């Protein structure tokens, strides 16, 4: 493997990880796709089949979608704008946010307990 390629790959991965560590990664889906690009090596099957081009097109589509939504966050389930991110396992595990209505529907329909929802309801009742 070309040492120059490896140096650039490690440098790019390091930059992406620093962004994530500093909370600057923006859309987590875009960050994931950018990191995936750094994992594709020249001559690999993914390289030869044009996966990098497809990943870059997906990044552009996600960025365009973000601009169309005003650059704000949108609900991962229904697509409505989300004004304030609340603690949620869905957000922590998948890097996506949900609106209040979808959060409530998730809580009612899913069989697993949600401590975050319980905590929010407790705070709401205290106010």
Structural account:
This protein has 127 residues and is mainly alpha-helical. The chain has two domains: 1-71, no CATH class; 72-127. The chain contains seven helices and two strands, in the order H-H-H-H-E-E-H-H-H. The radius of gyration is 19 Å and the shape is elongated. The N and C termini lie far apart (61 Å). The model has no long low-confidence stretch (mean pLDDT 79).
Question: Can you summarize this structure?
Answer:
By secondary structure, the protein is mainly alpha-helical. The chain folds into two domains: 1-71, no CATH class; 72-127. It is built from seven helices and two strands, in the order H-H-H-H-E-E-H-H-H.
Sequence of strands across the biggest β-sheet = 1-2
Percent helix, as a range, is 55-70%
Oligomer: single chain
Count the helices. How many? 7
Write out key terms for the chains shown.
127 residues, mainly alpha, 2 domains, 2 strands
Write the layout of secondary structure elements.
Elements: H1 3-21, H2 28-39, H3 45-48, H4 51-68, E1 73-74, E2 81-82, H5 89-94, H6 100-109, H7 115-126
Antiparallel strand pairs: 1-2
Helix pairs in contact: 1-2, 2-4
């Amino acid at each position: 493997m070309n040492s120059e390629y490896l140096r650039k790959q490690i440098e790019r991965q390091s930059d992406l990880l620093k962004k994530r560590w500093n909370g600057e990664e923006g859309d987590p889906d875009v960050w994931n796709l950018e990191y995936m690009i750094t994992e594709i090596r020249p001559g690999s099957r993914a390289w030869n089949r044009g996966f990098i081009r497809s990943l870059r097109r997906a990044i552009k589509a996600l960025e365009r979608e973000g601009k169309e939504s005003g650059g704000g966050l949108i609900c991962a389930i229904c697509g409505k704008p989300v004004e304030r991110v609340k603690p949620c396992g869905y957000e922590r595990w998948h890097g996506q946010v949900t609106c209040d209505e979808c959060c409530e529907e998730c809580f009612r329909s899913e069989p697993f307990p949600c401590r975050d929802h319980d905590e929010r309801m407790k705070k709401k009742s205290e106010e």
